[in-house]
Amino acid sequence: MKNWRDLLKILRRSFLYLGGRTPQMDHSERYCYNPVLRWNPQVEEYFIKAYGAEHFSKISNALTCPSCYSCIRVNTLKTTGDAVIERLSAMLHGTELRNSVDDLCKAELDMNQQDNNLPKEFDSLHIQDTCTLKERLQSNPIFKCQLPGLDYVLFVRGSGPYSIDYGFAPDKPPKEIIVSRKCAEAVLRGAQVYVPGVLACSAHVEKGDVVAVSVAVEQPCLDGGWGVGITRGTVLQGLPTDAQYLERNGLYIGQGTAMMSRAGIFRVPNGIAVDMNNRVFRLPPLHDVLEGEIFLQNLPSIITAHALDPQQGERILDMCAAPGGKTTAIAILMKDEGQIVAVDRSHNKVLDIQKLAGEMGLKCITTFKLDSTRSVARKTELFQLAEAQNSSDDIQKSVSVRSETVDAVPVITAGLSTDCPRKENDCSEEESPGAYLSKADRRKHNRRMKNGPGRNQSMGGRVEKSKGFSTNSFDRVLLDAPCSALGLRPRLFAGEETLHSLRSHGKYQRRLFDQAVQLVRPGGVIVYSTCTINPGENEALVRYALDTYEFLSLAAQHPRIGGPGLVGYHEFADGYTEEWLKPGEEELVQRFDPSSPLDTIGFFIAKFNVGTKESLAAMIQLNLPMVLEGNQV
Fold first, then answer.
1. What is the SS3 assignment for 62?
2. What's the rounded Cα separation, in Å, for the pair 329 and 301?
3. Residues noted as catalytic
4. What does each C-alpha distance from 577 to 101, 311, 540, 568, 571 come to in angstroms?
5. Spatial separation of the C-alpha atoms in residues 143 and 204, rounded to whole Å
6. Which has the closest alpha carbon to 108: 167, 160, 69, 68?
7. Residue 503, C-beta contacts closer than 8 angstroms, at least 6 positions apart
8. Helix or strand or coil: residue 317?
9. pTM for the whole structure
């Protein structure tokens, strides 16, 4: 029935226009930013039961907006916070940052709204009167974090939301460009509109024209799924028959200057399509600034590295390390002394970690390509490789068994060319001019040259593969688990997640946690974190860990600026009961609420102390599946 209602809505809209009856609407309601985050109905009901209707409504609204500030982590091995503040102030003076500050001071905001936009935990940011706020922002828009031990963290103020005059006239609607949701979310964080993100454009747009930018958010499809329903290159007429005309009400993210004509936008593969000079949210442009000296990172991610409390000389495992933000944060806290093993199952993501570590000048990070669900090396593989090492010097050069310092079993592999990926021992045309290439091979090569290497192809570079690590071989383990990412912001759509997919995330995270428990030594520490608001991936994982492993206990975290966890449980329609925290445990975890005054992303951190593992040894001897293969609930 729902699919038929959607079809009738589209037909009715077309008939109204063709019959001369244009739907009446105040243009101020259309040309504004007032998104409503759409959820799967069952997921929405689940979250309402977890948070309460009013609280979840606030969380949904907060997720549609970016934070009111940018958070910067300073590489203290290369520079200082004061030096970065001085250099950034000089670089950004008279640029978009200064304009954002001036706009903030001119904005007509009441006192309560300004108070709510400032993180109250930071006394230096909590200013009581408008005049003082204006003076502080004009004199120094970059702030040091005042929390103990976090003076190397800087905050750069942004501002918004703003009302924008798009130049609407009844007989002359503004020229428009429609962008994809992913592109719009990046624009809300301060990015420009790039060519690949443009879906549709008004006719006769020329370089230099002022255009309104709106976003096409996924809508229900007739097949029961979600889709945008816009063919790239669609021409907009500014009429109700335009693609997603009604659906784009309240989804205008700003105004900009077209950097190329309509024909150019859909002809070239890359480049800036629109220079966004009038934004709903104005955040300073800090990408590729002071490379290697600063790193843009969300505050909860920085707190996660501190919760791990790494010490110099320790051996630490980062199980899902890409893109390397937390890995490098840990290395800096250790003053680059010790060893951090950073793994990811993607070749290209491992290269990203290597690149970031190189930019920051960090030497204590060792990277491996490894599926973290297989982090524990099998004894048979360790034994066979050790035998091979002892019997052959040639094999020893290509396959090494780590000693006491590194207990991994790596296999060194060279990256493949981005232009023409090859199998091992294959020869390129340059190496063998006479080699035969079929027409199909040539067409495949031409497509790859035109469309890029593809997500499954290597970017090139050298990566070591690992077959796992010895048990009890790490002092501390960080498991920043892959998750539903329902805490990331700004977010304009959340309908793709279902109860089944959320529970699937939980199962996968338990498998990863089972590996982490085996790898950390007795007396060590495990820190578990996610960037989601889903209690099934947060509190439920803590409950599983404490109930499954008697030698684990929740540990206090420092610094603690997040809120308490959720206590209780949830019963699903199929009879499954998801248990969360018990009374008294909620204050030992940190839950970052997007709707709280801290104005961060949604995030969760739990820290575990590891005791004697006698019970774990018994479970492994019994070959219990929940330890070796992950919980299959």
1. helix
2. 9
3. 531
4. 50, 39, 10, 10, 4
5. 45
6. 160
7. 536, 576
8. strand
9. 0.82
